[in-house]
Amino acid sequence: MFKFLKKNFKKVVTNFSKKTEEELEKEPIVEEKIVQPEKKESSFESAVEEIKKDLKEKSEEIDEKEKRDEEEKKKSVFKKLTDVVKATKISEEKFDNLFEELEISLLENNVALDVIEKIKKDLKRSLVDKPLQRGKVQDMVTESLKESIESLFETEKIELIKKVKEKKPYIIMFAGINGSGKTTTIAKVAKMFKNNKLKCVIAASDTFRAAAIQQLQEHTDKLKLKLIKHDYGSDPAAVAFDAIKYAEAKKMDVVLIDTAGRQHSNSNLIEEMKKIVRVAKPDLKIFVGESITGNDCIEQAKKFNEAIGIDGIILSKADVDEKGGAAISVSYVTKKPIIYLGTGQEYEDLTPFKSELVVESLGLAS
Ligand SMILES: Nc1nc2c(ncn2[C@@H]2O[C@H](COP(=O)(O)OP(=O)(O)OP(=O)(O)O)[C@@H](O)[C@H]2O)c(=O)[nH]1
Ligand SMILES: [Mg+2]
Q1: Are 219 and 272 found together in one domain?
Q2: Given the CA of residue 341, which atom of ligand 1 is nearest to it?
Q3: Domain range holding 56?
Q4: Pick from 172, 228, 235, 237: nearest CA to 201
Q5: pLDDT in tens, 224-258
Q6: Does the N-terminal or the C-terminal CB of the chain have fewer CB atoms within 10 Å?
Q7: Pocket residues for ligand 1 (CB within 6 Å)?
Q8: Residue that finishes a domain, picked among 118, 133, 153
Q9: What's the 179 CA to ligand 2 centre distance in angstroms?
Q10: How many domains in the chain?
Q11: Is 366 part of any domain?
């Protein structure tokens, strides 16, 4: 997962830091301080020192040479214990030039423009026109990037298993473009609920694509779950409605609604999806997007959010995503949390999303 970022981002950050250091070397020193570490003597030790000093002062037998030696010794110790801190500044113009390589790397990894702008602004705030200590740039850059990336995920978190216990039946609808992984994700989520002793029923509300109902049937047969289905071409909202009635009658915990894949540009299908929402009144609307499609996935999430107001995101196919830009960007752009990553084609391949995972992948974890 995110192999490209893992390999390259750290290299680019190190390069950025190195070049910034080189630029700082050329700049005039704006601050020079001699820093003396605090004395860490215990009161007992200082008392002994005092007595020694007293005795020394009183003694008239100390010859001049000894005195000089003592002074020299003191001086060298003092030198060792002090540090000269030299600070220089970097201008906004130079920063912009230096940031270019980092910017290109982020773009190549499918990071959204809004996110790149935010990271640039945050980094600029920590570096530009501030006295910077030479030799400390890499630490500052890493810390600033880490904070910036972490803040991309400051949305409400969703713990699905906890959440579905809030209401019975809890209704979850899955939406996304064609082939994004909705049906497979529903099967994974259903298996997870089953493992947690939550009873769920699935609504085959994709009545559009040939074989969609059959595909779900195969999953529900394997998982021994109830599937509510109508004929192909029938009203998807009616299927969802029936599944909810079934769950209410059988006191089931969760209803999972599968929907047909659709492009946000297809207004008829978007209207149909809005109708499912009006009829089923889902407690949670999850957008399923393919991690590998990067910026397209982010744009789709935005459009689906505008159409039906999504609550959370599942990014499928993260196992084959070499880049990771969608995972970095989609929450910031939509202000919705990523709940899970799909990490393969097996039922177990569903990983709870954690921002730490991204920070680690970028080599920014401390
Ligand atoms: N590697 C990998 N493949 C996945 C993942 N999730 C789904 N797939 C595969 O992606 C393909 C499409 O998955 P579906 O679940 O049918 O997608 P869908 O969104 O329901 O598709 P439509 O109903 O046609 O819109 C299938 O071959 C899945 O096995 C994943 O996390 N990793
Ligand atoms: Mg499907």
Answers
A1: yes
A2: 31
A3: 37-81
A4: 228
A5: 999 999 999 999 999 999 999 999 999 999 999 99
A6: C
A7: 176, 178-184, 206, 209, 212, 261, 316-317, 319-320, 342-345, 349
A8: 153
A9: 7
A10: 3
A11: no
